[in-house]
Amino acid sequence: MAFNHLPAAMHDALGPLSVTPVTHSVPMAKNHRPSRPPENAGSRPSPTVVLDRLAAAAGRAARITHTEHLPPRAGTHALWPDRIRPEVISAIGRAGIDHPWTHQATAAEHALDGESVVIATGTASGKSLAYLAPVLSTLLEGSHAPNGRGTTALYLAPTKALAADQRRAVKALAAPLGSAIRPAVYDGDTPVEEREWVRQYANYVLTNPDMLHRGILPSHPRWASFLRSLRFVVIDECHTYRGVFGSHVAQVLRRLRRLCARYGSDPVFLLASATAAQPSVAAGRLTGLPVKEVADDASPRGEMVFALWEPPLTELHGEKGAPVRRTATAETADLLTDLTLQGVRSVAFVRSRRGAELISLIAKERLAEVDGSLPGRVAAYRGGYLPEERRALERALHSGDLLGLAATTALELGIDVSGLDAVVIAGYPGTRASLWQQAGRAGRSGQGALAVLVARDDPLDTFLVHHPEALFQQPVESTVLDPDNPYVLAPHLCAAAAELPLTEADIELFGPAVPELLPQLEAAKLLRRRTTGWHWTRRERAADLTDIRGGGGRPVQIVEEGTGRLLGTVDESAAHTAVHEGAVHLHQGRTYLVRTLDLEDSVALVEEAVPPYSTNARDTTAIAVLETDTEIPWGDGRLCFGSVEVTNQVVSFLRRRLITGEVLGETKLDLPPRTLRTRAVWWTVTEDQLDAARITPEILGGALHAAEHASIGMLPLFATCDRWDIGGVSVPLHPDTLLPTVFVYDGHPGGAGFAERAFHTARTWLTATRQAIASCECEAGCPSCIQSPKCGNGNEPLHKRGAVRLLTELLRTAPPDPPSEP
């Protein structure tokens, strides 16, 4: 029997939710009601005062396990390079900026010298102005050219919201420059009638890598004038381009550089990120170019107070009678409510779409107890909303009409929400980079800021709130991406060949794996070699071969059955678990039941309902070793890294009572299996090691399964991943190894670099895993150590003490971690 733990690409990324209703959401006396904010709530109290007020309710102070105080910092000014046109410097002055920070001037100097540069300074340090000053100056210079279109620039953002926000900022800054600067957004939300104007007249086009991949590059003849004049490519929030998504974007950028060369341009790349380790290395891997680094932050910073918050244990019991900690969802809803009542402008970041909806709904209901006008000051913001819904929420947040927002990471990236006072983070977001990115949304006007990390009932979250040094004394993670991944590279070679025939000269641009892949693409009749190079042979669009977000397939539309109204979409990869028949779906505070899921037409039909339960899918997984790339001895056991094939099938779903999490029943599902070829790390143990660890056959499966769960929960501390990016399988006797084996694999075709990073940090990673299990206060295992929210086997079997003994024995003779790849 295999015990599995699956990634988001194959499992419900929402996880089971035991939602505490509003009437039970605050540990206070029955006669205690939320009160109106104090009279001076609008006077921006210090973050310490705000935290003290949050901790004042009964029992709350004990939930704060650590408080980190980041002191304010003074800024250092410089002068703009004399090559920045005076009109641009004047426009910047009108915006209230008399002199740049030193890092802004340095970055602008590199850009004007024709050197690609990455600006890796803190949140709200003025990175946008650092690249906008040289870009606007160059565009203005080009507007005076006697002939032709003049100079152009391209801006890439990972989200539509960030591109739209940047357009607003550019338009406001460049207003004094008149029609010389013509910014325009070009993405999936751009009306068809506006697209031709953008192609012909805009000189600063803001888009995303998806539109560049599917819309601009395949239609490059229509963009010839723009590409011929392209001087700068701005890549904002470049740290988000990691894993499979980052690898795809790296190849999209190489296709862009190839077409630019065809039209006679050689653009300079300007990259920005508030949270990047080895920024020049990561930027160089992303763009394929040498990149200068500007990382000394000279901007001032207000005080930040960062609290780690652990919800209390409840009297409830979950699977196998394990104690249940109060959910991060319910705790965050309380905090967002209280911050709103204080008049503190706040965002609560939530990991799942469902969680964002629930937090907003709970907060609205609690606020209604105080004043009927207050619920309208709180909303949810997440992916999957229709464009007009997103834009309305963004406007309300900018204007201050909204005081509190429960948001997914769709709002994490760079949107300038000036004036936020506090950020609540519901569960560790998977990386320190994302943690600081989310925390940095507050205090963006220079004022003090409060950030609160609310721990989920999860091994990693529990470890972090009791080991603050892992957060505050460690650098952000290195960006992991692999542009040479054949599953990534192959479709981009096809797309490039469809744009212009591939030649021998292109091999160096696209990487060393190209010579091996081209014959395979020829054999598959995707490319044909002629005297002029390799040509795309098919009628369909080559750009449609891959979804660069790694989801694959077209999104599933969620449609209200009675009205035909489109509610939103869900990625095809998540459809089996998120919108299967009988699933509960939340949208803007309303609850729907999925009646049918039509995989052929990519439609889920839903109807509004109020079920007293949540749902989560169950599945089965098998794994086969295809090839072992690296193998080292671990005592008598082995540590291995290589290629595997994972077969997964969603087979049923559970209905859980909202209040207690009690399982009400299980319903079988008939959905097709899915196969994934990816990369994995795995370790084996021998009979002698089992004897030494006192692991009997009766507890072997539970010990392996518990170690697997906890190791997946801890891996994000050592690799730039989220636990939903990875999966695992544990087997008492695996047919390929003929030994008890634990696998941890990347949840993306071809791999994403996470399992490889686990291999190179295995001793450190598994030592932390053992410590997390052993230090947990529970008796037999709980969600804080070995139970997983996405276990396909219902967390059965698990054996906590067996896992500790097994890992102790495994690590006793383990060699030091092998050196990482450069």
TrEMBL record:
GO terms for molecular function: 3'-5' DNA helicase activity; ATP binding; nucleic acid binding. SMART domains: DEXDc, HELICc. PROSITE patterns: HELICASE_ATP_BIND_1, HELICASE_CTER. GO terms for biological process: interstrand cross-link repair; nucleotide-excision repair. Residues 108-294 form the Helicase ATP-binding domain. Keywords: ATP-binding, Helicase, Hydrolase, Nucleotide-binding. Residues 331-487 form the Helicase C-terminal domain. Pfam families: DEAD (PF00270), Helicase_C (PF00271), MZB (PF09369), WHD_HRQ1 (PF22982). CDD domains: DEXHc_Hrq1-like, SF2_C_Hrq. Residues 21-47 are annotated as: Disordered. InterPro entries: DEAD/DEAH_box_helicase_dom, Helicase_ATP-bd, Helicase_C-like, Helicase_put_actinobac, HRQ1_WHD, MZB, P-loop_NTPase. This is DEAD/DEAH box helicase.
